[in-house]
From TrEMBL:
<feature type="region of interest" description="Disordered">
    <location>
        <begin position="503"/>
        <end position="536"/>
    </location>
</feature>
<protein>
    <submittedName>
        <fullName>Amidohydrolase family protein</fullName>
    </submittedName>
</protein>
<dbReference type="InterPro" id="IPR050378">
    <property type="entry name" value="Metallo-dep_Hydrolases_sf"/>
</dbReference>
<dbReference type="InterPro" id="IPR013108">
    <property type="entry name" value="Amidohydro_3"/>
</dbReference>
<feature type="domain" description="Amidohydrolase 3">
    <location>
        <begin position="41"/>
        <end position="500"/>
    </location>
</feature>
<dbReference type="InterPro" id="IPR032466">
    <property type="entry name" value="Metal_Hydrolase"/>
</dbReference>
<dbReference type="InterPro" id="IPR011059">
    <property type="entry name" value="Metal-dep_hydrolase_composite"/>
</dbReference>
<dbReference type="Pfam" id="PF07969">
    <property type="entry name" value="Amidohydro_3"/>
</dbReference>
Amino acid sequence: MRLVMHGGTVVDSEEMRRADVAIEGEAITEVGEIPVGPDDRVIDCRGRYVLPGFVDTHSHADGLVEDESVQRSLLKQGVTTAIAGQDGVSFAPGDGAYASEYFAAINGAHPTYAGGGVAAYLAGVDGRSRVNFAYLVPAGTVRWEVCGRSKTPADAVQRAAMVDLVEEGMREGAVGLSTGLDYVPGLFASTDEIAALCAPVASVGGVYVTHMRGGYEANSAAGVEEIARISALSGARVHISHFHAQAHIVQDQLEALARSGVDATFDAYPYTRGCTLLGMPLLPPELAVLPADAVVEALEDPHERVRLRREWFPAVERNASLGPEWPSMITLAHIAAPGFAWAHGLTLEAAAAKAGTDPVETALDLLAASRLQVNAVMAVRHERKVAELARIFSNPGHMGGSDGIFIGAHPHPRARGTFARYLREYVRETATWSWPEAVRHLSAAPAARFGLGRRGRVATGWTADLIVVDPETVRDTATYERPLGEAVGIDDVVVAGEPVLTGGALGGRTPGRGLRRQAAAPPLAQSARSPESAGE
């Protein structure tokens, strides 16, 4: 039976026009004026826009692919494909044990994955989700599988074994390799080691995606210099995760990459605060890399607490992104210990005051009681206004990414609001993007960049991953104070030709797939080395 999306305005990356869209099976069969037959299923799109589904280039829904509330949150924003395996840590390859321990407060616990590598992870999505997932081979997980908790550079035998795992992941359909160079064990990887892992990625046209080293913001130059070297040694194309800094820093560093001949793109979300594991900035790496039991034992040792207070926390205060105000800049989003549920949504400063202790003791108490499973919203020292973010989003190398973390009673609002916020704030309210430009940044360019096949366009023969947007009402409702509000203005979504959101209600079928890397359609993205990016 044919499905007709009738009466809307079709928005592609180059134009918008009044047109109907006919779908048979998984594919778009016609775009134009289409008479509706008596046997057709019809979605009434009058007064609304029909767009290709959005691609979230940085998602942490890795373990939540079957969670209907997460699927709904993504679909309500118009996201039909999410790219998992971010920041160097996820389930595959291996048995998923490291991710389930270290990254549980970010990626969640996968309900079915117990090994089998990238192929098994992607197969676990097929037919079990309303949203598609692509996957990056996580370099930290690869290092864990080969080197365990070692803090020393990999030797030649270990490096070869890691390269083999990356090659296997790419053969099984991964779209690239990710690193998280502020997390363990990725933090211990050398530049040359990462470049060696990127070589098999480059050989098949994949992308090196990086949470770069050094903390971003004012420290971005050091991370970008390493990226340039990795690309030069491996030949890999690059995508920088959540590139957040002052607009002139982002622009200057992208231009530096362009001068180095690096093919680079990036994602950035429409918020200035971040979200991460509480232990990442507050525990030394040599402690954080130990088994959870050992870390908890150390944190419960009064002598170790004295040592951390004396030797480590002064470094926290010197951290360029935090500084002496760090207790007031960290808001507790997820605490796995039920006894500390009262602290959700409080800053560490406020939680310490309520507990009758100080922020260092409170932080260590939380981490020990939760077996490290704590994440937090991180303020920045200089909040950026909409106009400054608009300068970043105007760069032709920018792509949409939420860095969405769904774990937590008081999470960052970006998980549920990012893509609706793009449309509200940067299309409707400020006209940073036209509607076709929004499609380019949020759908067409990412689909081409990551080899997602015939997605990202509303055109005959392309996969029918489509969303229907009310341009006058689409908006985010999640805020820092009330972060669980779902987006509004997108109530009808089709994935692989199947309605998965109808009138705001989830459909019963789950046509989402684990997307295996495909030859890219003709590139629609302007990379950061494009002449158009100069002089922003």
